[in-house]
From TrEMBL:
Keywords: DNA-binding, Transcription, Transcription regulation. Pfam families: HTH_20 (PF12840). This is DNA-binding transcriptional ArsR family regulator. It comes from the Bacteria. One of its GO terms (molecular function) is DNA binding. It comes from Streptosporangium brasiliense. InterPro entries: ArsR-like_HTH (IPR011991), HTH_ArsR_DNA-bd_dom (IPR001845), HTH_MetalResp_TranReg (IPR051081), WH-like_DNA-bd_sf (IPR036388), WH_DNA-bd_sf (IPR036390). SMART domains: HTH_ARSR (SM00418).
Length: 187
């Protein structure tokens, strides 16, 4: 799939795989730091190797990670994030069967909890390293079509300037990027 194409993650099994906190941490680590073993991930996350191995297999089954055969040997298996569409979007609840909507709700709940944690860290991170912390707040007035175009342009811009961990220049740092946008007349 081309980077420019968006992909809607509407498979309930894949949503469920990504709604698990341990798996999210593992994916985040692989995205930030590149390949790792289940032992390495277990040490970093305070989990037993059997636990991390199980969760890695679930992520592999859903196509989010893949083994690196040339680095793996014996009982040691190295894992990396799989080539997945970079513009992965979530369905609206009406695009899922009613019985699958709680999985989407849990996915959002965990993600928003992570986002709140990042937002809480922002002031301290800004004090420590203001050149690497940027924030923007604004108010815009848009039609639904313009809002959709704005969001698509934002995602395209993010993809244009982002590198995978293994392809990044030496001076590149991983950055959490969030865009919050919602109607101001409902706040």
């Amino acid at each position: 799939m081309k980077d420019e194409e968006s992909f809607t993650l509407d498979d309930p099994a894949k949503l469920k795989a990504l709604a698990h906190p341990m798996r999210r941490l593992m994916l985040r680590h692989l995205g930030l730091h590149g390949p790792a073993t289940s032992t390495t991930l277990g040490e970093l996350l305070g989990a037993k190797t059997g636990t991390t191995s199980y969760h890695l297999r679930q992520l592999e089954k859903c196509g989010f990670i893949e083994e690196i055969p040339e680095r793996s040997g014996g009982r040691e298996r190295w894992w990396r994030r799989a080539e997945t569409p970079r513009d992965m979007r979530l369905p609206t609840p009406d695009r899922l069967a009613p019985e699958d909507r709680p999985v989407l709700a849990e996915f959002h709940r965990i993600g928003w909890e992570e986002d709140r944690g990042l937002l809480d860290r922002l002031p301290e991170l800004y004090r420590r390293d203001p050149e690497w912390v940027k924030a923007s707040r604004g108010l815009g007035r848009m039609t639904m079509t313009e809002f959709e175009e704005f969001f698509d342009a934002y995602v395209a811009l993010l993809m244009k300037y982002s590198h995978r961990a293994e392809d990044a220049p030496p001076d590149a740092r991983p950055l959490y990027v969030r865009l919050f946008a919602f109607p101001a007349d409902e706040s």
